């Protein structure tokens, strides 16, 4: 009998880094449960063409009900999750006091609450089996105060920190936790965040396929964290020794509305 194919769960898989991560999983011989809050029809078909069995779950992962909907699909599959790639998330530009608070809360609920709730559910299953790999999409944005992107950077600071804590808690469990920390990437992120008129929104960005490859390979090696790209590695290293006030000023230059003009 053939060995069963591994099962990967990928969130935020309709486009961008999440979509490319799902493709890496399919290329690795995984079947997939993919989730996003938008249509997954096109992504699912591409993944099936790569040989994967695919279950697509359209759900709002900023909500408990949405995460429960995804976990119900996992339970219905009747198979253990070998890989969890928690990538769902989005940003929000402009000054915090000028933002619609419902939108700011949606960023927090998607990037943090929904992410760690899903990790709590699937991570417990992995720990019980003493086997599994988890990849969290953090960001180098979590290493610096995000003037005019304060809520997003704050959520990524949480995810970056949380991933290291969880990794340490699971160090003897057979479950690995890896944090992928990309920089600006060529996705719909900046358009969705209302940041197309900013310097960072208009600057050259990394290819999401390259970012996904970096994260996937780090997860498979069981590494704790990985920063994609030399420029981002330099920026991450500099952030560790630069005063927070100076980092905030630097971020303002990149993210303040109209800074790309």
Automatic annotation (TrEMBL):
An example molecular function term from Gene Ontology annotations: oxidoreductase activity
PROSITE patterns: ADH_SHORT
Position of the signal peptide: none
Gene3D superfamilies in the record: NAD(P)-binding Rossmann-like Domain (3.40.50.720)
Domain Ketoreductase: 6-187
Keyword terms, alphabetized: Oxidoreductase
Pfam families, alphabetized: adh_short
Keyword flag Ubl conjugation: no
PANTHER family per the UniProt record, alphabetical: OXIDOREDUCTASE EPHD-RELATED, RETINOL DEHYDROGENASE-RELATED
Family: Belongs to the short-chain dehydrogenases/reductases (SDR) family.
Protein name, entry field: Oxidoreductase
Origin species: Caulobacter endophyticus
């Amino acid at each position: 009998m053939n060995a069963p194919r591994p099962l990967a769960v990928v969130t935020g898989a309709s486009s961008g880094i999440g979509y490319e991560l799902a493709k890496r999983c399919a290329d690795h011989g995984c079947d997939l449960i993919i989730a996003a809050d938008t249509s997954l029809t096109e992504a699912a078909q591409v993944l099936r063409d790569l040989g994967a069995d695919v279950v697509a779950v359209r759900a709002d992962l900023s909500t408990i009900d949405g995460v429960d909907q995804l976990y119900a699909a996992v339970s219905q599959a009747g198979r253990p999750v070998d890989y969890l790639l928690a990538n769902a998330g989005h940003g929000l530009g402009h000054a915090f006091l000028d933002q619609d608070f419902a939108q700011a809360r949606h960023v927090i609920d998607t990037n943090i609450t929904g992410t760690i709730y899903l990790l709590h559910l699937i991570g417990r299953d992995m720990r019980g089996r003493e086997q599994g790999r988890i990849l969290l999409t953090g960001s180098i944005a979590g290493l610096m105060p995000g003037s005019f992107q304060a809520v997003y950077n704050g959520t990524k600071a949480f995810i970056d920190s949380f991933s290291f804590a969880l990794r340490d808690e699971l160090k003897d469990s057979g479950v690995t936790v890896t944090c992928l920390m990309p920089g600006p990437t060529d996705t719909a992120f900046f358009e969705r965040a209302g940041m197309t008129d900013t310097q960072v929104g208009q600057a050259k960005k990394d290819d999401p396929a390259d970012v996904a490859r970096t994260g996937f390979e780090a997860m498979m090696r069981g590494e704790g964290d990985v920063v994609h790209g030399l420029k981002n590695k330099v920026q991450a290293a500099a952030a560790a020794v630069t005063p927070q006030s100076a980092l905030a000023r630097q971020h303002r230059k990149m993210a303040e509305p109209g800074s790309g003009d």
